[in-house]
């Protein structure tokens, strides 16, 4: 039972590391969050990425357009099955681009649905689906 609690905490730490990597632009940390064969999808957009390198390239290039971001996670639900696990949590993500007509802020709320695997480097995401539930502010903040 004690190992389950250790695993659950480590899995929540992976979700926090993802948010921290995005907000601090630490793309090496972001790479450590994902397994080499990971996939990432933005639900409803049709955007799907395969492989750690493609995921980091896409998220880093998208993240560089913002003057700042601030990701918060909560309501973590973790189920551990040996060396594999599922994780779900809510997120709120503030995105800021200064000087835009129509407003500088876009706040997005949603959910992360994850699958993870225990590796020699610790728990890593093998699959993440990002589902936007709501947004508020200027959508142009996220435009390319």
From TrEMBL:
<dbReference type="Pfam" id="PF13577">
    <property type="entry name" value="SnoaL_4"/>
</dbReference>
<dbReference type="InterPro" id="IPR037401">
    <property type="entry name" value="SnoaL-like"/>
</dbReference>
<protein>
    <submittedName>
        <fullName>Nuclear transport factor 2 family protein</fullName>
    </submittedName>
</protein>
<dbReference type="InterPro" id="IPR032710">
    <property type="entry name" value="NTF2-like_dom_sf"/>
</dbReference>
<feature type="domain" description="SnoaL-like">
    <location>
        <begin position="6"/>
        <end position="128"/>
    </location>
</feature>
């Amino acid at each position: 039972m004690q190992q389950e609690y250790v695993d659950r905490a480590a899995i929540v730490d992976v979700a926090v590391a993802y948010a921290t990597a995005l907000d601090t632009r630490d793309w090496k940390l972001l790479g450590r969050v994902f397994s080499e064969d990971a996939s990432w999808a933005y639900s409803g957009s049709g955007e799907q990425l395969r492989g750690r390198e493609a995921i980091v390239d896409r998220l880093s290039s998208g993240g560089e357009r913002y003057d700042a971001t601030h990701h918060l996670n909560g309501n973590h639900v973790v189920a551990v099955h040996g060396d594999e696990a599922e994780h779900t949590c809510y997120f709120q993500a503030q995105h800021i681009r200064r000087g835009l007509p129509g407003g500088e802020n876009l706040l997005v709320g949603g959910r992360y649905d994850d699958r993870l695997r225990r590796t020699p480097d610790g728990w890593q995401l093998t699959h993440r689906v990002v589902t936007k539930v709501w947004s508020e502010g200027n959508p142009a903040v996220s435009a390319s």
